[in-house]
Amino acid sequence: MRLIMFGTGPFAVPTFKSLLDSDHEVLALVTRPIADSGKRRKTSENPTRDAGTEAGLLVLDPPDVNQPGSVAKLEELNADLFVVCDYGQILSRQCLGAAKLGGINLHGSLLPKYRGAAPINWAIYNGDAITGITIIHMTPKLDGGPCLVKSETEILPTETTETIEPRLAELGVQPVHEAISMLAAWDGESEIGEIQDRKLATKAPRLRKSDGQIDWSRSAIEIVNQIRAFQPWPGSFTNWHSDKLKQPMRLILHRASVNDQSSAPESKPGQVLSTVSADTNESQLIVQTGNGQLSIEEIQPAGKRKMPVADFLRGKPPEIGDILAP
Q1: For residue 40, is pLDDT > 60?
Q2: Which of 273, 294, 284, 277 is closest to 217 using CA atoms?
Q3: What CATH homologous superfamily does 2-200 map to?
Q4: 111 Cβ partners below 8 Å, 6+ apart?
């Protein structure tokens, strides 16, 4: 098959490299342009581009892939199929029509659940125990095409988006090849794949900075799931309010656990309940939530590095009765 890869982020890299090493002919990589912010970056902004450049592949990076000029360039390449993963633009009907068989998309959820830009984050946020990947035959509707191949995996209780995303990226490699084989044998007319049930569809919108604000009226387990879900961005943050501070101190919570799941709060949500364990006399930071109590284990005060909560409490620690809130 003559393929064109569409990808930008790290989720696309394992699939892209596997296609380069396969018997298929990869004609080009289409990726997003790199924004020039004037700042030096510690990590690549576009790891898929890096892989394409290393392979000596033709790299196209149109600001809008759906513009007539971009579509014309794709038509000139005469591809059989587009393979799309972690690209960043929605392909129009005209763009998909530039390949004989349209496109397939590797999506990081078990569709029709979590359609959208951040499926892995929202699956963890909602406390799901199972997630997976889906290969769809693309239509102009976002994540709405028929499902060709699915593969599922467990979400471990302590996993974060950072740890599960690379695992899902690797999980998607073989299903992509299976989907390509399905389309290679397809007559182009008969029904293929499993039509998505629109009644079961849920959304996974792109994350916003404001999503990271902790609402302490939520339950302890919901807040723990939020902390796991929103790493590395937007993070999960709150502010420490105390009479001994000139102004509230911003805190980013990197790791936490449920200390008590009792339903009826005896204190105000966000209130600091304990800074020292009564059983071990070790430092701990226990906070009341709307349902249960939360133990903060790793924290990052404003302008500081992230640290174990014991290190944070050696300074000027919160006192019992202090409030964490927006």
Answers
A1: no
A2: 294
A3: Formyl transferase, N-terminal domain (3.40.50.170)
A4: 134, 136, 143, 147, 150, 196
Segment 77-103, tens digit of pLDDT: 999 999 999 999 999 999 999 999 999
Amino acid 207: pLDDT: 97
What the block records as the tokens of 71 is: 């579509």
**Single-letter residue type at 2:** R
In this structure, the strands spanning 2-7 and 81-85 are parallel
Cα 221 to Cα 218: distance, rounded to the nearest angstrom: 8
CATH number of 209-325: 3.10.25.10
Domain edges within the chain: 2-200, 209-325
CA 273 to chain centroid, in Å, comes to 33
Mean of per-residue pLDDT scores for the chain = 93
What average pLDDT does this structure show over 192-216?
A: 96
Within a 10 A sphere around the Cβ of 198, how many other Cβ atoms?
A: 8
